[in-house]
Specification:
Strand content: 25-35%
Shape: globular
Strand order of the largest sheet: 1-2-3-4-5
Distance between the termini: 66 Å
């Protein structure tokens, strides 16, 4: 049996890193409503744990039979002179990018279905 090894990150542009961080925030908003903001934790079913500590966000790969657990993205939020600045450090693999694209699609579909249901309800109420 081979021992777990470190994952091999790929270069990922800033926009993709921001989309992945945004997807993580959407997961926290959607599934961690009962938790205090700044202290939320989302445990995915298979691959990832998302941890919010104050204004910072970590996405952690849990590890699997072939790879060790590790932080794959860190988002730090700072305020300077009334402006919010975001610093992202990412160690993403191609599989991470693909998984988060699928998660984002599912979230958008889920949120879109709920909005359509609300519109139907509101439309029925208004008529």
């Amino acid at each position: 049996m081979t021992s777990p090894r470190p994952r091999t990150p790929i270069p990922v542009d800033r926009q993709t890193q921001e989309q992945i961080a945004g997807t993580a925030v959407l997961l926290l908003e959607r599934f961690c409503q009962g938790q205090h903001r700044g202290q939320r934790v989302f445990e995915g079913k298979q691959f990832y744990t998302i941890v919010e500590r104050g204004r910072d966000l970590n996405i952690e790969f849990r590890g699997d039979a072939h790879h060790l657990p590790e932080t794959i993205l860190t988002l730090r939020t700072q305020r300077e002179n009334g402006q919010t600045l975001y610093e992202i450090d990412a160690w993403l693999t191609q599989a991470d990018v693909q998984r988060f694209a699928l998660i984002r699609e599912e979230l958008q579909q889920d949120l879109g279905d709920k909005q359509m249901a609300l519109r139907r309800t509101n439309g029925a109420t208004l008529n």
